[in-house]
Each structure stands twice: as structure tokens, then as C-alpha cells.
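call fold(seq) -> C-alpha cells
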Amino acid sequence: MNIEVLIRNEVAKAVNTLYQAEIDAAQVQTQMTRKEFEGDWTVVVFPFLKLSKKGPEQTAEELGNYLIAKVNEILKFNVVKGFLNLVVSDQYWINVLTKAFNNQQFGSISDAANAPLYMVEYSSPNTNKPLHLGHIRNNLLGFSIAEILKANGNKVVKTNIVNDRGIHICKSMVAWLHSGKNETPESSGKKGDHLVGEYYVKFDQQYKKEIAELEAKGMSKEAAEANAPSMIKTREMLLQWEANDPEVRALWQKMNTWVYKGFDVTYRNLGVNFDKIYYESDTYTIGRDEVLRGLKEGVFTRREDGSVWVDLTNEGLDEKILLRSDGTSVYMTQDIGTAKLRYQDYPIDHMVYVVGNEQNYHFKVLSIILDKLGFQWGKDLYHFSYGMVELPQGKMKSREGTVVDADDLIEGMIDVARKTSEELGKLDEYDETEKENIYRMIALGALKYFILKVDPKKTMLFNPEESIDFNGNTGPFIQYTYARIQSVLRKAKDAGILWESNNLPAQLEPKELELIKRISNFPDVVKEAGQNHSPALIANYCYELVKEYNQFYHEFTILKESELAKKSLRLVLSETVARVIRNGMLLLGIECPERM
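ret:
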């Protein structure tokens, strides 16, 4: 039994025995003892004073004496005002270490037959541009949340909805027809998603030029935006697409195929994947049919121009368009269709949308609309709303081309990792293939950790130089500690040293004890990270564990320790810490090199 649970249960029994009062163990307040006081766990005594009818110190003393008599794991106690500090025996902590050491999947829960099914949606790219830094945060958060949910014993389906149709897609197509001269990824030597993204930027440049020309002729800005030739062509192309015009559809399929091949490379390089990919072109018609059903049933209304709307003023929101006057769909229409299709495909218990906080309103509306359409799961959708990524110079804008491209960023990080490692000379004896693999692990570890260690709710400022720093609260620092431990374990094996959990000393040094306490917290951190959908909790736990281990490493000898039981303990500790680091970092999608 977890020591905290044991203490709460025994304190509840003590109150019953000493003061003839029934309390629930969940009402007992416990916390880890503050470092300036002696103890492992602290019981807050103040809530029991009405029951004991005594002062806080006397009540704490009575509870402490009861626990000493009844609980073998509690060695001694001390009282500080209304706080009862309990010292847990070394044997208890040695048992904790032994269980962790013998459990390869320590921190994770095996899938149960009746475990709930979570569907986690992330990435959700548009096929008019390559993935950028904002997409990286989304992908890393989504992938990590899915892995953390799995570690908590849940069934998980990782899914992606590709926004492959709509006015924005047509913009790239119009620009390619206007100035592409049949350029292809093969003829240009460019990744397909990069090539299509360039035409999206070119469209915006041409569109702004046309608007300026019309305004110069006396047209209002709003009228100029609506009547610019490029925009007229784009709206016409969207109508042709929805009418299944064969030429438009053929161009759409060709350019989207270029983009998908590019996306696949980026996803593979980033180390994320999906169990199921949905496409807006397949789901928007389902959504449109649902909107028309809602219109027929009186849930929605049609305006004079033919557009369909939903009135959400009674819900404290406003009116939302669902179909344009020309009959074309909007994002909301697609999301309605995708949601219905997913619940047909899978027995989903929990649906998690990993989407930036700029879409908070959108998901409030989606939940209400699905409920109005009669879907029981409408109100249960969970929008994991995270903060945007900003650069030192401000927000990124895809249409203006002012983004940090994901592929360029990954390559740049690998270059920095290569340069830094070469300067340190730590990989000199490895062959080029092994070196490049380690450079890639270090680079992605730096990138992923820098992004995931930040509270996901917060807007974050991305600074590439800080992210690749090999010191402090960084991915490479944690990876290096893991590699250091592996080096110690290899040297022990080479020297013929054996270490087992059944040959450990009866007493622990303070640093050894602190390290075991850190290890013991890992399952609780994984559980909390799952409840809060927060990879940051895992990331910062790994950093604190590594800091603690490095202090231990510098303070104590391991391989040169003459006392066999102590040497065995320190090797068991080292191996267990390494496993926790590896398991924790894998929940963030980060690999740890065996050598660095």
C-alpha cells in the first residue's frame, strides 16, 4: 500500500480510537514534509482539534504515539505547532526501491479489459502550407497526451483531421494555375508541402496588390477585397470543386498528394504518428447533411440569402453560420460531420481535441450544436486548449511567409547538436552513422523538451538558442545523465560486478533516501499528468530526478565502494533512475541515447 494512503487510513483509525469520532480517510490532510524539517510525510492536525478538544501540539503528540505503536513503517515523529511530521523507516523505502527496480514498466498501468477509450485529435494541418513551429507544439502535445493516457491504463486512438478542402486550399491552386508553369516537386527539387505553401504566399501577395489597385480607383476596402480578381476566381473554384468539376478535382488531388508526401516526411522526422486519419473532403458532406437535418427539424434557420445559421444567444453566445449563401461549407460543418463519423467508427468514451486557445469559441459552439442535433456525447467533448507559440519578433503568419518551418527547424537543431557535440569531442570514437543518430536524438530531445516543459495553457516564447542549451533544465541535460548512468552500468558489467535488489543494506544515506523518494513519486506524477493532460508535469519531474541523481553521483562513489551491499544499492538506484528517465522521456516522445 502507498505510504500516504496507509498514513491516512491509520490516522482515521486513530481519531476513531482516541476521540470516538468517525472520519473518512480522504478527509485526512497529508503532504510531503518540508525540507527544513525532519520527516517524510506530514499530517495536518488542525481539523481534529474540535474532536480532540485539546491543543494542536497535544493532539499531534497523541496521534504520533498511536501511529508509532500501530504502524511498523513509521519510525519516529516530531511536532511543529499543528503539524505532525512522520519519519518513515529505511526498510520501507528499500522495499519501494526493490519494487521499482523489478518492474520494467514502473510508473505505467497495464490496459484493463474495460478501460475507457480516448480519442485524441491533434495536428489538423491545412494542405495549403507546410507544418510550422505552431504545428510542432500541437503535434508534440497531442502525441505526449496520448502516450500519458495510455500509461494510465486507458485505450487510446490517435487521430488527425486533414483540412484538405475549402477556400484556403483553392487559393494555392489558383496561384499555381496563374504562375506555376507546371512546376512540380520533382522539377523544382522542393518538398511538396513547401512548394504548395509558396503558392499560398504568392496568392496573398497578388491579392493584396489587386486590393490596392481597386482602392486606388475609389473602391472601399471591403468591396475591393470581395471583387479582387484572384478572390473571384478562388470562390468560383470552390463552387466547381463542390460540384465535382473533373479538372478542378484532378488539380486538387495532384497538389494534395504533393503535400501528403511532404507531411509524412515531417511527421516521421518529428517522431509522431496516428492510428486513423480523417479528411475534411470526406466528412464535410456528412456535416452538411446534419445541418440540413437540423434545418428541417427547426434547430437551425435559413436567411434570405440562403445561408444557414444557428442562434446561440440563449447559451450566452451569438449566431453562427453553418452553410454559406452559395451552399458551401464552413469549418464548423466539417467538424460536425467528423464528430459523427468518429463515433460511428469507434466506441469512444472521451474525445480530446488538441487545438490552440484561439479556437476556444469554436469548440464551445461545436459542443452545443452537437447537443442540439441530439448527439448524447455532444457536451462531453473536451477541448484541450493550449497557448500559442510566439517568436521574439511576434506572431507567425503563414500567408505572409513569416513562420518557422518545421523541417528547417528540425534540420537546424540537428546542425547545432552536431556542432556542439563535435566541440565537446564526446563522440569521437563513434562511426558516422552512430554519430548522426545521436545528433538527431539530442536535437529532437532539445526541441521536444523545451516545448513540453512549459505549462501547455501558457503562450510560450520559442528561442532556438535556449532550446539547444546543453545545461540546466533542458532535454540534452537529461539525456546526458541517462547516458552517464548507462556508462556506469556498462563498466560494472565489464568488471563482473553483480547487483541485485535482495542484497541491499538496512540503512540509507540521506541522498540515497531522497533519490528513492523521487523515484517513488513517478507513478503519482504520471497519474496527475493524465488527469490534467499535462506533459509539463512529466518533463519537470524528469529534470528534478536528474538533478537529484547528479548530486548523489558527485557525492558518493559507486564502482569503487568497498562495501558490497552499498555498491549493490547504488547500482540498483542508478539502474532504476535510468529506467524512470527513459520511461518518463518516452512519454514525451523523447529517446535517450545509450552513449553521449
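The chain has three domains: 3-88, 122-278+289-300+327-390, 406-586.
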